[in-house]
Amino acid sequence: MQQVSSIRLGRIAGGVAGLVGLAVAELGAGLIARDGSPVSDLAEVVTAVLPAAWISDSTGAFGAGARIALLAAVVVVTLVLAVVSGQLELKRKQLSLAVYLPAGVVTLLAVSTQVGPGALGYVPAVLGLSAGYLTLRLLIAELRRPPGALEPIAAERRNFLKTAGLVALGGIVVAGVGRMLVQASNRVAEVRTKIVLPPAANPAPTVPVGTDLDVAGLTRYITPNASFYRIDTALQLPVIDPETWTLKVTGLVSTPVTLTYAELLARPLTEHLTTLTCMSNQVGGDLAGNAVWLGLPVHQVLAEAGPQAGADMVLSVSQDGWSAATPLSTLTDPDVSALLAVGMNGEPLSPEHGFPVRMVVPGLYGDVSATKWVTELKVTTFDDDSGYWAQKGWSERGPIKIASRIDIPTRSVVEPGTVIVAGVAWAQTTGISKVEVQVDDGPWQDTELADTVGPDTWRQWAYDWTAEPGDYEIRVRATDADGRVQTDKDVPPFPSAASGLHTVPVKVRPA
Ligand SMILES: Nc1nc2c(c(=O)[nH]1)N[C@H]1C(S)=C(S)[C@@H](COP(=O)(O)O)O[C@H]1N2
Ligand SMILES: [Mo]
């Protein structure tokens, strides 16, 4: 009798642990704002192997009912396995691994069919499996504890059941929160796919073919969205419904302004190419990208709000509390194409790059201007307020430094003969007028400069180097349109952006 009920307690422990594992996996998926979870990944795999007729409705579409049934089936099978694992673990310590390990492998394989490259997509499954296994070990250890001398066995069991019940309840709450997060991000992702961006009232000039020298390995003039660098402090991507998003212009203004997403899209929008770069970029680093941004000029919104005398800064604040401090004079200058951007290379912003609205300001590092998921522009002063990175000691002022980078050769060993040395250079708002390369201590050589649409973007450059066998160092320097030459003074990124000349070692093989 006693034996039977202790097996039952083991099963309960297993089931509760399974529930906790599922819950943690869901929450993990919600927190990284994945558009799925390990449970739905498993369901997808089942869908792929089941005959289509079983799960399609009369129109051939995948029925919503079938989808829910599949998800439920995955949860039920998981819980049954978890119950079995509890029984095994009670029999012998770690015997539950006989269930957890194969289940883990199958889950991770299922996840791998649904997520892109990168480890992040696997995190929810790994967390869920670990949480389930650990919970099971803890609960079983609790069951195994010899009963206290004074405590009757029945009381021990009641205590165990109480603990298990509380753990299960916690699991359900956690799972619920995870589901809500996943669903919110799914819904916003769907709303995003339906957005049709209006054509620009002020379109960017057609990008001349000559902006791309079409050299293999050289950074493209326009950075595809998928490879655009991403820098932010968000552990969890903000999920913002454009239908409820608003931008508030507050602070030292005569008329506070509130703008909805629909109102923003209805305004005449401007399209502008701006190369965005990060203050923490190393010399030669890749924290820079060039895109066609579509948005509302910031100076228009500020003009409507009417900044008061004395204000000298705009603190742009994101939904997740990040902020950037930008000089008011830059943002009210109609000649600077600072945008409240909704579009990036013809698409609505992606969640990673600030959906639904972000700032982009030519000439300033992203750190002090390019607030993603922006919800407020507070007109204020540098004396009274400061941005997120400035509070951590980074410089708040200072335009982008002239920079140039060598992209190729990518290999440090090349064959003798003509070797193309090429890269990009930027000096936003002024523009690049010259790029030179130097081999060892030789003379600075002019390079071929690609076309550009304007001073706010980088320019490609290329140089045909006649390489003789030997070991060399190649460095690059740029000159801006005002004739200023890039400094060779090596400075690290902190606190006000790196400087110095990008230098790469190259070995030319013997002929
Ligand atoms: N909300 C928010 N916006 C942000 C940041 C951030 O951490 N949070 N990082 C900024 C920094 S430091 C840079 S360089 C740019 C990078 O933009 P990207 O990720 O679209 O390339 O975003 C800026 N906007
Ligand atoms: Mo940055």
Task: Please explain how this structure is put together.
This protein is of the alpha+beta class. It has three domains: 2-193, no CATH class; 220-392, Oxidoreductase, molybdopterin-binding domain (Sulfite Oxidase, Chain A, domain 2, Alpha-Beta Complex), CATH 3.90.420; 403-508, Immunoglobulin-like (Sandwich). Helix content is 34%, strand content 22%. The chain has helices at residues 2-31, 38-49, 52-55, 64-91, 97-112, 123-144, 153-194, 261-266, 298-305, 328-332, and strands at residues 246-251, 257-260, 270-277, 288-297, 313-318, 323-327, 339-344, 347-348, 358-360, 374-380, 403-408, 413-414, 417-426, 432-439, 445-446, 448-449, 459-467, 470-480, 503-508. Helix 2 crosses helix 4. The radius of gyration is 29 Å and the shape is globular. It starts with a helix and ends with a strand. 39% of the residues are buried. Bound molecules: the ligand Nc1nc2c(c(=O)[nH]1)N[C@H]1C(S)=C(S)[C@@H](COP(=O)(O)O)O[C@H]1N2 and molybdenum atom (MO). The site of molybdenum atom has 6 residues, from loops.
Considering the chains and any ligands shown, give keywords for the structure:
binds molybdenum atom; alpha+beta; Molybdopterin-dependent oxidoreductase; 10 helices; Immunoglobulin-like; 3 domains; transmembrane; five-stranded mixed β-sheet; globular; 34% helix
Briefly summarize what is shown.
This is Molybdopterin-dependent oxidoreductase. With 511 residues, the protein is α+β, with helices and mostly antiparallel strands.
